[in-house]
Design a protein that fits this description.
The chain is an alpha/beta fold. Helix content is about 40%, strand content about 20%. Strands 1-2-3 form a three-stranded parallel beta sheet, covered by helices on one side.
């Protein structure tokens, strides 16, 4: 939730191209961002997920078709 709030803060307070918001997560950060991306796939254009377990929900991301997810590790 904090990652989502931080993203929303930047959108509201800076000149952000919302079609180009990218996220990445590695290890524990990957678990955190997998949850954030699955809660709000509309916020992120792409997400790079590495060396971590996916704890998010695949269905919400697939249904929105807004976020591209790249897995590595």
């Amino acid at each position: 939730r904090q990652a989502i709030k931080l993203t929303e803060y930047f959108i509201e307070n800076f000149n952000v191209d919302t079609s180009r918001i990218y996220a990445a997560g590695y290890s524990a950060g990957g678990k955190t961002m997998s949850c954030a991306v699955s809660m709000r796939p509309d916020l992120y254009a792409a997400y790079l997920h590495g060396a971590s377990q996916w704890d998010g929900d695949y269905d919400s991301v697939a249904k929105k078709r807004c976020c591209r997810i790249y897995l590595y590790g």
